[in-house]
Amino acid sequence: MPEIVARGRQQAEKILESLEGRHRVSLQTREWVLPSKDTRDNDWIVAANRQAHLDTEGEAAWTNRLIYGDNLLAMAALLAGDEHTPSLRGKVDLIYIDPPFDSKADYRTKVALPGVELEQRPTVIEQFAYSDTWSDGTASYLAMITPRLILMRELLSETGSIYVHLDWHVGHYVKLALDEVFGRGAFKNEIIWDYSFRMMDLPGFYNRKHDALYFYGKGPDTYFDMPKTAWTKDDLMKSRKQAIHVDEEGVEWIWMPGGKGNSKNKLRRVDEILQEGKAVSDVWDIPIISSSSKERVDYATQKPESLLERILLASCPEGGLVLDVFGGSGTTAAVAEKLGRRWITTDLGKPACMIMRKRLIDQGAKPFLYQAIGDYQVEAAKSSLGRSFRVGDLSGIVLSLYGALPLPPEDNPLRNLGAVVYGGKKTLVLVDSPNKLTGDATLRKAIAQRDHLLGGWDRVVVLGWNFEPSIGESITALNDARLEVLVIPPDLLDRLRKKGGIEKLRGQVRFSSLQYLTIKPVQRMCSGDVEQIKVTLDNYVLLSPEAINLDEENRKKLLKVANAEPLALIEYWAVDPDYDGRVFRSVWQDYRGNTANDDDPLRVVTAAEFNVPYQGGPRRVCVRVVDVFGFEAEVVKMVAEPGK
């Protein structure tokens, strides 16, 4: 354990040292979400309020955040700060985490489509969130959690506190790590959450019906507002082991302790005691979420809102900031939103982030940012290959796994070009940098190199990590049969690290094609100061089914649905009627399960109709979709003013 903690400290210290450098981790805003889930909402005031939110973006003192990506990198970015939000070091009031319990459970994602249900195995990236599997068992689990706890302590304010939610698998081990990171004197409580529901007769041991929450404060003046529950007269009599006395006027009295430092009992009015409530103990009898509950979002490890309500009311002041870096089903953010607390939540699983985004939209949350880790692959490469690695090193690995030989250095200064010669045909291979989004400019450059470099090539293949959402439109507009664009698997570096080298991974990496979206002509209808916009989806093509972790049987089911009803693959879509090309501001959204728009839980509506304040001239309308597997695609259309 001391060795694990020491290594964790070294890892955390390297991250903290890197915060001062030029290449510190940053967050990219993928979407600025202004929840509006009802297409029938034609209220002008609502539309005007949405416009007001748009106009004040960046001026508000705080915007809540949902972050997709490794929480270690997310916390590094929060500690570093950016142009919109200064560093949050020492600014977080409460951290609640419900990390995986090292239960060796295999949380496969079930995807329901019309007529079929698919079972998707988690990607290597998402195994961290869903499979709870680490190579060296508990030691690896502790090596994962320790540097994260150290960064959490850096984020906490001096009056802040942390609750770590675990069960019998690793709770006692993590308690030792918490003692090392926060100090044994910072320990407040081990809270027992008794969630007894079904009793099963299991051989050899008692029924396991509780989790433990370890509650630590950062400093000596931890904020804490004792939660109270209602007394009943029976509770009171049982607690005091005595009867209630009634005086001549019918007033009820009972003997109670005199208080701190006063050992004498005194008579107190029962009605006053009942009104004050009973201080909560460290054993919490809170039921789990029933299968019929309105809270349920079909997430394997979802926790009840009443559990988080108690924690937030006790340990986060009104308007305070709550952080949950294992966001899961989004209960922490949902409860924080309801209770008037600010929040940040993160998760490494795309399904979890989708569930959280939908849940927050569904409850009409205030506008929030959906962000991702900037340069995720670069950070993963530094972790795999050492901090001194160069992007060219990474390009060389990708070329090798694709089966291309690098071009000579004099023709390949960035070390990102390779060649495949087969059947008398020469193919140029270009690996784009993980530092940027592959888009139209890269494709045109690749075509120019194909035509002119070293006497020309028969075709060119562009391998990219991250893509401009409009990449599908760019490929269609270029209409070049000798250009192919493929996706580098996002978990490539994790797989490389797991397999232990390029040779062991050779022949097992698939570079998949992209997906794209088409829409019907956008309609604008003006009436005075208001205009109605109608956007209708046309087609969605999933060109990369091989990138999805499905077995052969599930892959056949997917292709059947994709061919028969392609729009059924869309999980979520949103519209920005005035896209600036930088930040996507979604003022209208729909998602599967949103019955405000229709009664079909397995399909999104295919048309959006909403009102916005009138604007002269053309509008740049952007439509973005996310499919059931987490892939994104977008279309941007310039729409002329009606009658122009």
Automatic annotation (TrEMBL):
**What reaction(s) does this enzyme catalyze?**
a 2'-deoxyadenosine in DNA + S-adenosyl-L-methionine = an N(6)-methyl-2'-deoxyadenosine in DNA + S-adenosyl-L-homocysteine + H(+)
Tell me its EC number(s), please.
2.1.1.72
Give the source's domain of life in one word.
Answer: Bacteria
Q: Where is the DNA methylase N-4/N-6 domain?
A: 92-355
InterPro entries reported in the protein's UniProt record? DNA_methylase_N4/N6, DNA_methylase_N6_adenine_CS, N4/N6-MTase_EcoPI_Mod-like, SAM-dependent_MTases_sf
A GO biological process held by the record: methylation
Q: Which UniProt keywords apply?
A: Methyltransferase, S-adenosyl-L-methionine, Transferase
Q: Name one GO molecular function term.
A: methyltransferase activity
Reply yes or no: does the keyword Amino-acid biosynthesis apply. Answer: no
* One Pfam family per UniProt: N6_N4_Mtase
On whether Transmembrane helix is a keyword of this UniProt record, the answer is no
Q: Which top EC class is named for this enzyme in its record?
A: transferase
The UniProt entry's sequence similarity note says: Belongs to the N(4)/N(6)-methyltransferase family.
Name this polypeptide is given: site-specific DNA-methyltransferase (adenine-specific)
Starting at the broadest rank, the lineage of the source organism is:
Bacteria, Pseudomonadati, Pseudomonadota, Gammaproteobacteria, Lysobacterales
